[in-house]
Every structure is written in C-alpha cells, then in structure tokens.
Amino acid sequence: MSIPTPAELEKRWWHRLIRILIWIVSGIATLFGIFIFILSLSEYYDFNYFTLLFFLLGPLIYLFLSLFYRKIIIYIVFGSNEKTDTRRISYFISALKRVIIKNRLRLFAVILVILILGIIGWFSFDRATLRNLRYEAYVINLRIGAVYNIDTYFDLLSTDQDTYKYRLKTKIDSKIYELNDIFTDLAAIGKTCETRPVCRQKLANQLVEMNKSIEAGREYFEKFGKNISDIIFIRDRAIEINRAVRLKYFLSPDPSFPAFTKKQLSDLIDLQWSVNHYDLIRQKRLCDEATSYMIDSAIFSNICEQDLFLGMLTFNFTDGEQNPKADMQSVCNLEKNYALTPTCPITLSKVESVREKYRTYLSTHKNPYLSVSELPYEKRTEIPNDQSKVVAGFYDALAKGRGDLAVKFVTPKKQEIGSFTASGLTKYWSNLLLPLGVLTIEASDEPNVYSVLYIYQARGKDQCIDTARVELEKIGDTWYISQITPKQGC
C-alpha cells in the first residue's frame, strides 16, 4: 500500500476532518497567546517581553501537529506493503528515527527555542519570586498595623456589664490568634528568603523587626485588662517598631527587587488606606448606640469624646508639604514612589469620595454645624425675614458655589457690585480645595449684627478658619446683608 499523493488525500473525508481539527487546536492556542499578551497590558499586570513569545504558541502547535500527522501517522498507515505489520512497535520506532533524521535541522531549531524560553522563564520566575516575597512582607506589615487599629474596639460600645468582659476576652483572643497566624506567614516568608542572597541581605532584617512587633503585640494583648503599668508602653512599642519598618523601608522601592505589578500596587494602596483611615460615620453611629455602662469607660472617652462632626467637616488631604494628615500622606507617598508619578490620583480620589460621603451625612443628620450640602432656600425665590436665616442662606449658597443664589441675600444696592457679583462669587467659592463650612452663627451684642465662624481652604493656600462680622439692614419687610467684614481676611 503506497502513500497517497496530497491530491488523493484531499478526497478522503477523514483527512479533511483531521486538518480542520489541527486548525481549530492551533487557532485556540493562538487566541490564548493573544489573550495572555493583552492581559499583560492591562492595568492589573505589568508588561513583560516574555509574553511576546506567546504569539508563537499557535504556529508552533500547528507545525508540530502537521508534522506529526503527515510524517508519522500517514507514513505508518500507508508507508508499507501488505506483507509488513505496520503496527509493530519496531516499525514505529524506525519510522520515527527516519523522520527525526530527515528533519533534524528543524528539530534542532525547536529545541533551541525551547531552551531559550526555558532560560527566560527561569529568570522571570526568579525575579517574580523576589518581587512577591517583598510584596507579601509588605502585606504582613500592614496586617500587623491593622491589628492595633482603634476601630476594632468600636463594637464594644454596645455591650453592657454582663457581656463586656466576655466580648472583650473574645476580641483579645482573636487578636492573639491573628498575630499567631501572621507570625506563621512571616516565618514562611523568612524560610523562602533564606534561599536567595538578595532577600537575605535586604529583607531579612525587616522580617526580624516585624517579628519583634508581633512579640510585643502578643505581650500587650496577654496583659490587656490586668492593670499593668507598662501596658501602654508595650502597645506603643509594638506599633512603632512595625511603623518604622514601613516608613524606612517599604514606603519606597528597593532597587534590588523587581517593581511591584500594577495590581500589587493597587492592593497595597487599598490596604494602607484601610490601616490609616477609619470611618467617622460608623464611629459616630456606634458612639450614639453606646450603653450607659460603656459611657463611663475609657474606651468611650478615647473613641467618642471628640468632635466627630467637626472631623467630618474638616476632613481633607492636599498632598502638601505642610499637610497635617500624616496618615493620608503615607498612602500618597506609597503611590507616588512606586508609580513614579508627581502626585497620587488614587489616594486623592479616595479622599474626595470620603469627603463627599461626610458632607452628605452632615446635610442629612442633625449636627452643630450648618448643612453645607443642601440649601433650604434653593427652590424658593423669596428671601426669609428671619435675620439668622438670611445669614445662613447666604453662607449655604457660598458653600455650594452658587453665587447667583448668594447675591439674593445681599442688599439690592450692592448686588452685582464689587465683590458681590454672582459670577465672581461662583468662580471663587466653587473652586475651593476645601469647600466652605460654617461652624457657628451667633448674634452679637450690637443690633442687626451677626458673627459667623467658618472654615475653608483655597487652592495653593493654607486652611483658613476665620470669623466674619455680618451686618444686616431691613428694606420693607425683608432683611438683607449690607456689609461683611472678615476678622483676619485670610
């Protein structure tokens, strides 16, 4: 039985079917290679030149299957006469040898490509391992920081005398268990780190310091509630050891290690944000729900005896050199140092989202400060007769950046004159870094005069907290603002 010609093979239905299957398998492999390449260009993974080699996956599979089918399968099926048992193993081996000898240059090229890919893959794997070790160590550092967060004690405020000790013990036990779990993960990283010289030289000392923080933390929680004099010192020592490692080492890239992937950096920013920022709205809600038993406790005084409303009103971050928000600055520095950008858009976006949430909360909940998110007179054309409401309406309009509404509260003879133009007021007050927030409005001893305490921050300037003297006059039955004199004029 002789080997059929290509023209004769094309007439066989099974030959056409096999060719279609080879094309399907090769096409799937090609699409997979393209998918891997596109994935490397996404925001979650960094581009690696090694991924370009995935483009060869489909062609290589097509070449291999075609060669195997044409040179081995067809040769075995048709390449012998009836007197020869074509299915003997010896015949298969001899046929394979002939194919190898005939295509030795092609096979050598394939083996060389595979060898090169293997070398590239090994170095890529080794670099990825180093990068992942440092990433996992950074994650553990943030996990340790999260253990000491104050917001983990918020839910204790709802306990009474009977459940407080049980809930506190449960929480302390969970903290110790969490630290033990972190210690196990840290030990695993240390064991892997010992096998790589760069890791031993650069990362090992940081792992030792974090281990000290874990030991101090376990000592603190084991002594918690036992009236031991140095317990606060132990806690602060645990926090500062871990924080020092983060600020001195992890917050900036180490050139000895490959850079984090985009996904790793995004995850680290989220983790560090969660460590440095806790929700004032949740804190306020739990403080309001505190039992009478917990109101007299140290936990209540530490968590609730502060002006949470003012904290929401003034919450801001500007990435400035004199920025008081050191916790937010560390998140911003992390983003700038690793993303190599002059600013930190992800952090600023998170800040803006929180600010919007706080302002919405202040506008819908009773608080000692005036609403700066909703205007009570926005849908009204008439000006209220009450003096305090005129002052409040004017500043509410400024807080919304609505100069067109604010001038309606100004005496008619000064409207659209000087600093009381609708366009001027809108342009300035709608472009603030920290929008205007009114803290208090109080009537003075002088008739028709009010004192307004407010806070805002213009772009490129320091935060301003000032008091304005607001004079009013009555025209007909309606009160209007006739004069505004800031005390400091910042």
Shape: elongated
Annotated CATH architecture of the domain at 387-486: Roll
Strand content: 5-15%
Number of strands: 4
Structure summarized in a few sentences:
With 490 residues, the chain is an alpha+beta fold. It has 19 helices and 4 strands.
Overview of this protein structure:
This protein is of the alpha+beta class and 490 residues long. Among the domains are: 6-102, no CATH class; 279-368, no CATH class; 387-486, Nuclear Transport Factor 2, Chain: A, CATH 3.10.450.50. Helices cover 60% and strands 8% of the residues. It contains 19 helices and four strands. The chain has helices at residues 6-9, 13-40, 57-78, 89-102, 104-147, 161-193, 197-202, 204-223, 231-250, 262-276, 280-288, 292-295, 298-304, 308-314, 326-339, 345-364, 387-399, 403-406, 422-429; strands spanning 434-443, 449-457, 464-475, 478-486. A hairpin with a 6-residue loop joins strand 2 (449-457) and strand 3. Helix 5 (104-147) runs antiparallel to helix 6, helix 5 runs antiparallel to helix 9 (231-250) and helix 8 (204-223) packs antiparallel against helix 9. It starts with 5 loop residues before the first helix and ends with a strand. The relative contact order is 0.06. Mean pLDDT is 81; it is low at 80-88 and 371-383.
Helix and strand layout, with pairings?
Layout: H1 6-9, H2 13-40, H3 57-78, H4 89-102, H5 104-147, H6 161-193, H7 197-202, H8 204-223, H9 231-250, H10 262-276, H11 280-288, H12 292-295, H13 298-304, H14 308-314, H15 326-339, H16 345-364, H17 387-399, H18 403-406, H19 422-429, E1 434-443, E2 449-457, E3 464-475, E4 478-486
Antiparallel strand pairs: 1-2, 2-3, 3-4
